[in-house]
Amino acid sequence: MPVVVTSTPADAGPVLLARDVDLVRGEARLLDSVSLRVEHGEHWALLGPNGAGKSTLLGILGARTHPTRGEVHVLGRRLGRVDVRELRSYLGHVDPRHPVQSPLTLRQVVLTGLTNTTELVPRWGPSASEEAEADRLIALLGVSHRASDRWPTLSQGERGRALIARALMPAPRLLLLDEPATGLDLAAREQLLTALDTLRREHPGLATVLVTHHLEELPPSTTHAYLLRDGRCLAAGPASAVLTTELVSQCFGHPVRIVHDDGRWAARARRVLAPL
């Protein structure tokens, strides 16, 4: 049976707290002594090269995977001592690969956020206030003009913004975004980042963790950054202290120059000449 969210649990302390987390699969150590603390209203960027463990860590923070060792507390609940199915109902998890099998409308997909399902639940219907909230979030994310259009006809950018609205339906305290700008062209990416900034302003208590490979995909409202390489934390803290030329170059294993202008970050790769 689907979980229908009616309220958010009372939160005490940090939104997320991970202590010395390891994740081992066979002979591979995917995460190695990873620790992270996220407070209410903070907006974290989780960056690193391919295979660094970003999506793996996000899966643990979203109660989709359990660590091999270490402690993880989500909204004050410790993984392993809580019903994760219920806990997931209080999290907003945005995955651009979200599976939609039926030709639902954008509005219907947003409403499935109330039942934590990918399809509409038989014999269930939203209340008038829940429908109004769906319409408000759809407007906030700038896709009201496509609310009645079927999912297969939407662009990747429109789907991304709809999935953020869907994730917000249970009024979560935590929003996890797994590479939300994947596959977007320049205009769609900028529309998405603008929508995220608007969302963060209107929900000051909301905490977010956004996974990306690219600094250009970070909204200006980003407050903190976490650099992950080979499953280990290289640096974590305020974005201005972490997103530096030296640390980002070390994280990605390539010399880059970091530019921070008008609230946005960019990485300029330095040309490395091969020896003659």
From TrEMBL:
List each copy of the ABC transporter domain by range: 16-255
User: What's a Pfam family in this record?
Assistant: ABC_tran
Quick check: keyword Nucleotide-binding in the entry?
A: yes
Q: Does the keyword ATP-binding apply?
A: yes
Question: What molecular functions are annotated in GO for this chain?
Answer: ATP binding; ATP hydrolysis activity
Q: Which Gene3D superfamilies match?
A: P-loop containing nucleotide triphosphate hydrolases
The UniProt keywords, alphabetically, are:
ATP-binding, Nucleotide-binding
This chain belongs to the protein called ABC transporter ATP-binding protein
| Record lineage | Bacteria, Bacillati, Actinomycetota, Actinomycetes, Pseudonocardiales
